[in-house]
Automatic annotation (TrEMBL):
A Pfam family it matches: TPM_phosphatase
Database matches in InterPro entries: TPM_dom
Biased composition (Gly residues): 273-282
Region (Disordered): 272-303
Bias kind Low complexity: ranges: 283-294
Organism (species): [Clostridium] celerecrescens 18A
TPM domain sequence ranges: 50-172
Protein name, entry field: TPM domain-containing protein
Record's keyword terms, sorted: Membrane, Transmembrane, Transmembrane helix
Domain of life: Bacteria
Length: 303
């Protein structure tokens, strides 16, 4: 009887132990699942990028924006932020957007590349803030075009569609690439930073042209100095020709007879008095300034 009781106790302990291990594995599995769900594309932790402080979006719209922003961040390797406010604290829309971006430490890389979209219900203004490399993609003309589309939506109080229009515009212009002749113009210093890049097919074409030109030049020189004609002449005739050669030296002087100097006044170009804009296409211009070590551009639109 005692042996049976001891065997029963051992079985009970094993059962409890197995149950405890099974419970631990269930809890661990649930925690790993929650952690995996909290991760974005490529294993990076998801970070909140939509701040609807004015309560303009539905929960479904916020979730849609967050998903789209995560995909954009992964593709562009730049940050994207959407925020709304109805209490700007006495700041302009531009000041509020810049402070929000700096305070949140948003941006990717040393130049904090990214873009922020603000719906300011206090100042009644939409504002787009490109930072760092994003200024190359969102030129003055492009972010104004995005604001045009966003303004059409907010005029009908369709705030979700307004933010969606912003995301679509950024996506569109990123995929279009940096426009030809793009340059950043610092409105505070007047400094111009021109974007220069060479695509692979441009480099390949330049190398091919260089090879053709070099081959043509080398072929011409080789043909000219090969002396095929001279080798066809008879040796005796060549030697006889050289035997009759003579050299005679004589003094020669050059005398300056007259000197004429012509002066011509070249008028200055008065056609373009705009500061920092001469010689560049306005379509590729991004007007920027520096704040807290960040190159910031963009602008706003009242509604």
């Amino acid at each position: 009887m005692m042996k049976t009781k001891g065997l029963f106790l051992r079985i009970s302990r094993v059962t409890v132990l197995l149950f405890t291990v099974l419970l631990f594995l269930i809890v661990l599995s649930g925690g790993m699942k929650a952690f995996a769900e909290s991760q974005g594309p490529g294993g990076a932790l998801k970070e909140k990028r939509v701040y609807d402080e004015a309560g303009l979006f539905s929960q479904e719209e916020i979730e849609t924006f967050e998903t789209q922003i995560q995909a954009m961040r992964k593709e562009m390797n730049m940050d994207v932020v959407i925020t709304t406010t109805d209490q700007a604290g006495g700041k302009s829309a531009g000041q509020y957007a810049e402070d929000f971006y700096i305070r949140g430490a948003y941006g990717v890389g040393k130049d904090y590349s990214g873009v922020l979209f603000l719906i300011d219900m206090d100042n009644r203004e939409l504002y787009i803030l490109p930072v760092g490399k994003m200024n190359r993609f969102l030129t003055d003309k492009r972010w104004n075009s995005i604001l045009d589309s966003a303004y059409d939506e907010i005029s009908n109080q369709n705030y979700g569609a307004c933010a969606g229009s912003f995301l679509d515009g950024v996506n569109k212009y990123y995929k279009a690439g940096i426009p030809g002749g793009q340059y950043n113009y610092d409105k505070e210093t007047g400094k111009i930073s021109v974007y220069r890049s060479i695509r692979w097919y441009e480099a390949a074409l330049a190398a091919l042209i260089g090879l053709i030109a070099a081959a043509t030049a080398c072929g011409g020189v080789t043909s000219r100095y090969s002396m095929k004609k001279e080798r066809g002449w008879a040796k005796n005739s060549l030697m006889a020709y050289r035997a009759n050669c003579q050299f005679r030296y004589s003094d020669q002087f050059d005398h300056l007879v007259n000197k004429n100097v012509t002066y011509m006044i070249i008028p200055r170009n008065q056609g373009n008095t705009g500061r920092g804009g001469g010689g560049f296409s306005s379509g590729g211009r991004s007007t920027t300034h520096t704040s807290s070590g960040r190159t910031m551009g963009g602008g706003g639109r009242k509604f």
